[in-house]
Design goal:
This protein is α+β, with helices and mostly antiparallel strands. Helices cover about 30% and strands about 15% of the residues. Strands 1-5-4-3-2-6 form a 6-stranded antiparallel β-sheet. A hairpin with an 8-residue loop joins strand 2 and strand 3. The relative contact order is 0.20.
Length: about 170
């Protein structure tokens, strides 16, 4: 069942369908009707000037207009990788609500994170899918392209995330 959903999500989120994914009116007209019922939409795709990716959401910086402007709404895997390499993000010893969830597709690139989200109390994940909607989903109810490897890290505060963004701004 999950494999079929993942395959379907791969098509929905693909580059050939990208405008239907991130342009709000096209999302509601063309994508929302075919979105698997296993996914719960928390928020639709924001307008282009307020949009952000999964890593900004995961770090709690998605509502900071200054950060959105400075980053263009994107921080990339290498920023997260750097935070881990220098010990700013610590691998979680136990999973709990708020734990950071990072996905890898080892068959594509073993060093790069493809997606990130936040663990919910019930074991589901809330995450922002590229420039698309904010969704709650089961751990592996994600596009196949996100991969099958999941790593968990202790959460950090918005203030700490903002400090790290400023500290390592040269990586942006």
């Amino acid at each position: 069942m999950i494999a079929a959903i993942r395959y379907q999500l791969n098509k929905i989120v693909s580059t050939e369908n990208e405008k239907n994914w991130y342009v709000p009116e096209l999302f509601f007209r063309n994508t929302m009707p075919i979105l698997p019922s296993e996914l719960q939409m928390v928020a639709p795709p924001p307008t282009a000037d307020k949009n952000y990716n999964c890593f900004l959401f995961m770090l709690g910086l998605h509502e900071n207009a200054s950060v959105i402007n400075k980053t263009g709404g994107f921080i990339y895997s290498f920023f997260i990788e750097h935070l881990i390499a220098c010990g700013e993000l610590i691998e979680a010893q136990q999973m709990q609500e708020g734990t950071l969830v990072l996905y890898k597709n080892l068959s594509q690139n073993e060093n790069e994170f493809t997606h990130g989200g936040i663990l919910q109390a019930d074991g589901s994940v809330i995450s922002k899918w590229s420039w698309g909607p904010l969704l709650i989903h089961k751990m592996f109810a994600v596009p196949l392209a996100y991969g099958d490897t999941v790593l968990y890290y202790d959460p950090i505060s918005k203030e700490q995330a903002l400090h790290l963004l400023e500290k390592y701004h040269a990586l942006l």
